[in-house]
Amino acid sequence: MKKYIYIGAGAVVILAIVGYYAFASHAPRYATAAVVRGSITQEASASGNVEAPTTIDLQFQNSGRLVSLGVDTGAKVSAGEVLARQDTSILSAQLAQAEAAVATQQANLASLLQGTRPEQLAVQETQVTNDQSALAQANQSVINAIQNAYTQSDDAVHNKVDQFFTNPQTSTPQVSFTSSNSQLISNVIADRESAGGMFPGWQTEVGSLGTSTDLSAAISEAQTNLTSVTQLLSDANAALNNAIAGQSANQASITGWIANVAIARANLNAAISALTSAVSAEQAAASALAKDQKSLALEQAGSTSATIDSQQAQVVQAEASVSVIKAQIAQTELVSPIDGVVTGVTGSVGETISPSVVVVSILPTSALQVNVNLSEDNIAGVAVGQPVSVSLDAFPSIVWQGTVAKIDPAETIIGGAVYYETTVMFDQPDARIKAGMTANVLIQTGAASSTLMVPASAIQTNDTSTFVEQYENGNITNQTVTTGLKSQSGMVEITSGLSEGELVVTGAQ
Which of 20, 136, 335, 388 keeps 20 to 30 A from 224, CA to CA? Predict the structure, then answer.
């Protein structure tokens, strides 16, 4: 007995373990983070050694026509002094266009935030009122067309066709002429029998119509009845054209009946055409009213938060384009990063200068420098003249200020990775700083405020796009995004593709 008890207990344990993993497999296994709005700073960091100053070679970052060269060899220059310039006419035009785009996007955002103006709402409300009046008129036109269709049908049957029937109001109507084609006679009699019972109900329906009535049933009934009367007139015309003049009907009577049927057919065709046109006009009026009512509802509801967030992203993107062009314009100027003496000048005004040409060489007059190697991921945002924070291992609690003085355009391969040698000059001499000391530099390469951010672990890339995995209601979908700045703390700016508060997957839980 104990053996069976042990076996049973073991089975329960196994089932519990299997059940745990079965249920656990359905639980979310993702770490997520919300899209937040805030400030972000992008910085490049590296370490190097303090060295005695060496000649600083200044080169343009892009090819361009030289329009200004204001120094000669031996001239003393000051930090921040512009030494040479390239042509910026194309970039200036692009900047004006980009700034106009910013103004447009800002105006669109202001319009969304302000909401619909009362004047605009009044215009939209008036349009809806006009549409309602137009629909009422169109409905009345349909009613008139149905009434006319009844009148013409009644005249065609009771005044035109019944002329050649001997007992038209009975259940066994008979024609008062003979024909060479007995089938045509049978067709006319059957048509008259069919038409005989439709008029009482149709008359009641027509008498109850109003502009607020749903006219769809009345339209359908009128079209069906018009088809029946049209068939009757067509068959009557065929039978009369094959009629045999004789004792029952002379030729003059037959000719008169044929003429009356022709008049009835013409009147009925006109009634059919009028009804078709009235129905088309009514449908168009109803469609216009529905469209304008939806537009009015949207105007009254105002802009959604998602729409506003999207427009704010458009503003940020447009401003980023301006910043990029301004940065490109700044690159067309060679600015002395230090106080020094010019030791060499290359190039003439009007000449196209490539990035490989050293245009001005400067020997610093004082202060020490730090040479560091920046990776290719960091160098993109670094430019000559940018401020730098420098700390020394010998004085960990002190931060000195410096300036990016030179970026070597040629790469340096270290351990298979690409780096670019960058020279940082101390802004002020300090007796505590000695050559050979280990220095750590921090260069701010970009900053943004009130921008959207996600953890860097959420960003993924493939051959065609950059994307994140969005998490919503237990479902994960890929969302293409455009990224901007990346901070040392591991946050990445999102310039388009996401809205504040949305959840993104940052890894396995």
Answer: 136
